[in-house]
Amino acid sequence: MATEQLTASRPPIDAALARRLITAQFPQWAGLPLEPVEPAGSDHVIHRLGDELAVRLPRHSGATEQAGKEYEWLPRLAPRLPLAVPEPVAVGEPAFGYPWSWAVSRWLAGEVATVEALADCRASAVGLAGFLTALQSLTPEGPAPDAGGALSGRPLADRDRGTRAAIARVGGVFDTTDLTGLWESGLRAPGWDRAPVWFHGDFHTGNLLTVDGRLSAVIDFGGLGIGDPACDLVIAFTLMSADTRAVFREALGVDDATWTRGRAWALTTGLNAYTAYAATSPRVAAQTTRQITQALIG
Asked: Are residues 220 and 115 part of one domain?
């Protein structure tokens, strides 16, 4: 294949490429039906493979570590978590001009969680708090990654420059004084002073599945790491109402400093997605507007 394809920041991905990769590397699944999953994610192109499998191909270089990370860590964490998580089956190798590792996992049935269905559901708020409590309590078998490892969490302050730039860009939509005030409150809040714990790292509505209106699974552990769990409080602002946020916070036992950092995480990730995708995706615009607005409410 051409060198341009091998080095492209976003290589072309379609069903034909996915089929070639599967046939060459996992011929036992070559005859299974292959169907794209919509809506497509920002990090991966996903295809359902037969009735029981899913194929995930990273869209960009920032998502390329997920296949190996999930394959190594999820089997250790999953048995002690109260909601289902992806079950990795295989990790594929670069080929046919596609430059990165990719993954095959068990298909998880369900619908993506929605604000309309769950925002006011107290049981869901308690269930999500229970999931995070369980995740934070786990010590996986074997050595956990050290503070300098690939799974260590980045401090909130690392996002300062980008967040301030994003605030400047959305002045026509949001009150930049309020945004700046919340962001600076998060930076000033005391940091996590306890032992590092596991966090999901991308814990928002789009990474939750439901069956018959009830939470069933948590997916997409590309941000899995250890450190300050405040980043996982983003779910309170992408999914919940003010009333169910209070239920969630009490069930999880979140102190004031961690809650403030969590609001700042919701702000910075919401701004990042808004500035990147809102102009081309009304769905993302609506979701991230809600996330930013709810983070301001607290």
From this structure: yes
pLDDT digits (tens, 9 = 90+) for 23-34: 999 999 999 999
| Domain end call among 79, 106, 133 | 106
Angle at CA of residue 198, ends 103 and 204, nearest 5°: 65
Shared-domain flag, residues 162 and 85: no
In this structure, are residues 193 and 163 in contact, taking their beta carbons and an 8 Å threshold? no
Concatenated DSSP letters of 207-237: GEEEETTEEEEE---TT-EEE-GGGGGGHHH
Write the DSSP symbol of residue 200: -
Residue 117 · residue 210 · CB < 8 Å: yes
Note the maximum CA span of the chain. Answer: 58
For residues 271 and 282, what is the distance between their CA atoms, to the nearest angstrom?
15
Rounded-to-integer distance, Cα 38 and Cα 45, Å: 9
Fill in the amino acid letter for 82.
Answer: P
Q: Same domain for 84 and 150? A: no
Tell me if 184 sits within 8 A of 221, measured CB to CB. no
Same domain flag for 41 and 73: yes
What's the CATH number where 62 sits?
3.30.200.20
| Residue 36: both structure tokens together | 């794209």
Reported as half-sphere exposure (CB side, CA atoms, 13 A), residue 163 has a value of 21
**CATH code for position 292:** 3.90.1200.10
Segments forming the whole domain that contains residue 245? 111-297
Decide: helix, strand or coil at residue 198: strand
Q: Which residue has the tokens 């049935």?
A: 109
Q: What are phi and psi of 141, to 5 degrees?
A: -60, 145
- The three-class DSSP label of residue 101 is coil
CA angle in degrees (0–180, nearest 5) for 40-43-46: 45
Q: What is the pLDDT of residues 234-288, one digit of tens each?
A: 999 999 999 999 999 999 999 999 999 999 999 999 999 999 999 999 999 999 9
